Amino acid sequence: MSVINQMLKELDQRRAEESGIAMTPYQPATPWFRSKSLWSGLVIGGALVGTAFAVLLMPKLTISWEPTQPAVSTAVEPTKAKSSSLKTMLNEAGEAEAATAHQNEQETDVSVTAQVEPIQSKPVSLEVADSKPEPEPKSQEEAVEVVAIAEPAKQKQTQTIAAVVTAKPTFQLTEVKLTPEQRASKSLASARQWKQQGELEKASEEYSKSLLLQPHQHQVRNELAALLFGIADTRRAMEVLQEGLLQFPEQKQFGILQARILQQNEQPSQALQRLVSLNLKATESHTKGLILMSELAQTAQNHDVAAYSFDALTQLQPSVAKWWIGKGYALDSQGQSQPALSAYKSALLATELSADARQYLLNRINQLGG
């Protein structure tokens, strides 16, 4: 029978396919209380009613201030539903703050604002109470802190930028006192620089400053006198040298330079007198003065001074023939034949003697009986 039934079912299926009629099995009707659309509608409607109820019971905000905390914070009472916007919460927080300030008159008077300077040392975050109902806090210490401030990373960057912008350079002035020696050296360097540039007046001023600070600079005094003589200021040049002689009498070079200035100004007699007053000796430092004095004395036919000068020069430079000849001539002119003969003979033994000078010596030695 099962085979026959199977064959009949297949026959019916083929007929249905040919005729385009689908074979649908029989399904009994579903009861109303099992309808999915009905229950979905009920759930959605209940949710809408709950949302409307939650909006009507919007939470109130309260503000609390703890003086020991470094950051400004606001406390929010737990609510049964989420607030519509942060702006509304902050407005209500301002109203609650005014009510709380009357109760805390003896506490520190602090102005609470929603804006916090970006230089706060500790980062805080914004926290909003969950919409789930919670028991009211027993005291203000258990209130949830709500702090409006930038994120920590942005705060750190803001602090860094602010530090760079607001940093002001500091300058420290240190007074350095130069010693007289340092000031004199500085003036001397300036004087020589001005002299090199051709600014002789400015150079003379700096030379004078240097000498005023350090009068024992003998070479500097000589340079200043020569500079003043070069700009035709003979009076000042003589005064500078005279000051040196008064302060340092052993420095005969200042008097020698005075004599040379007088000679250049065509005052040979004054120059010779100046040299004689120096009482020059047969020392190396007086050599130039002795040479100048011998020339001036010989020109002036002052044989006594000439003999003295040449005699000192023969002691300093005995190999120079002209010193011996000058000494012999000065003594011979005074009628001192024997000392003059001795000087002539010494001249023959000296070096660098010209042929004419040798012939003159030989003739004069023969005349004196030598």
Automatic annotation (TrEMBL):
Region (Disordered), start-end ranges: 94-140
Keywords carried by this UniProt record: Membrane, Transmembrane, Transmembrane helix
Chain intervals with Basic and acidic residues compositional bias: 129-140
Transmembrane residue ranges: 38-58
Keyword tRNA processing listed: no
Protein name from the UniProt record: MSHA biogenesis protein MshN
Source species of the chain: Paraferrimonas haliotis
